[in-house]
Amino acid sequence: MTIDIQALIAKRPHLKDPLEMYARWQRFHQEAGELLPKERSAMSAEDSRTYPRDCAGPIFRLFVSIFDLPGEELAPLGQALESGEIDFMRLPLGEVPVVSALPATEDELSKILFLVSRPYFLALRQTFPLDGSQWEDGRCPLCSARPALATIVEGPQRHLHCSFCGTSGTYQFIGCPNCGSTDVSQLNTIMAEDESGFRLATCDACHSYVKIVESSILDEMTLDLADMASLPLDLVAQAKGYVRMAPNPIALKTMG
């Protein structure tokens, strides 16, 4: 699905900055894809845990250029990527590697690695498609990330969606995918009148939330853009003390 980002900005001018950031990521994903090997079918999921060394450097330099980042300051990260030191498959588990001599906090490095690794994860999904598979313990069956979004489909069934690799799959209809609680007294829904097509599923057991996207929204935009378009709901949830467990498409968990 091709979406005109500028048209979406015209409809939601309050989201201009994050949507323009996402447009940069789209460009990075497209150009990074041209640098990645076309045939990956011979690689196992266990052996495919980072960028191939011959394209890690070019992809990192492309990333720095598109996002207008200080390449000299981030050089230690580029070197770590080129030497294969960073295991991307640990990132969805919330594990951030230590990169010596890098002037960045753990949170800043986590965001950078999420953005720089997404072309890898999306390519991995193409090689090992697991869409439709059950999300055991509420984790993505391909990369083990927590869900970024949920949708309700006919059945009814609840599908969870991954912001790292884009995999979607089924999960039990009642229950928190982040902690597994099925205590309905602690599971609630929050809706906002000015955010039609979106709502929040909150859990008071673990104080987390997942945004729910109505299927009609996906006739108009991708899941990534649905997550971006509903940023105001993240602010609502977080103002009430709930936390987001998976980053959105521009690496944000905490808004504001």
Q: Can you tell me about this structure?
A:
One of its GO terms (biological process) is protein maturation. Keywords: Cytoplasm. The chain has seven helices and seven strands. With 256 residues, it is α/β, with parallel strands linked by helices. It has two domains: 123 residues, no CATH class; 113 residues, FdhE-like fold (Alpha-Beta Complex). Strands 1, 2, 3, 4, 5, 6 and 7 form a seven-stranded mixed β-sheet that branches. Helix 1 packs antiparallel against helix 2, helix 2 packs antiparallel against helix 3 and helix 2 crosses helix 5. The protein is globular and about 50 Å long.
The 3D shape can be described as globular
Largest pleated sheet:
7 strands, mixed
Q: What's the quaternary structure here? A: single chain
N→C terminal distance:
29 Å
Architecture blueprint of SSEs:
Elements: H1 5-11, H2 16-35, H3 53-66, H4 75-82, H5 106-127, E1 149-153, E2 157-161, E3 168-171, E4 187-191, E5 198-203, E6 208-213, H6 223-229, H7 231-239, E7 243-244
Parallel strand pairs: 1-6, 6-7
Antiparallel strand pairs: 1-2, 2-3, 4-5, 5-6
Any key phrases for this structure?
globular, Formate_DH_accessory, 256 residues, FdhE-like fold, alpha/beta, FdhE-like_sf, FdhE protein, ferric iron binding, single chain, 2 domains, 7 strands
Summarize the structure.
With 256 residues, the protein is of the alpha/beta class.
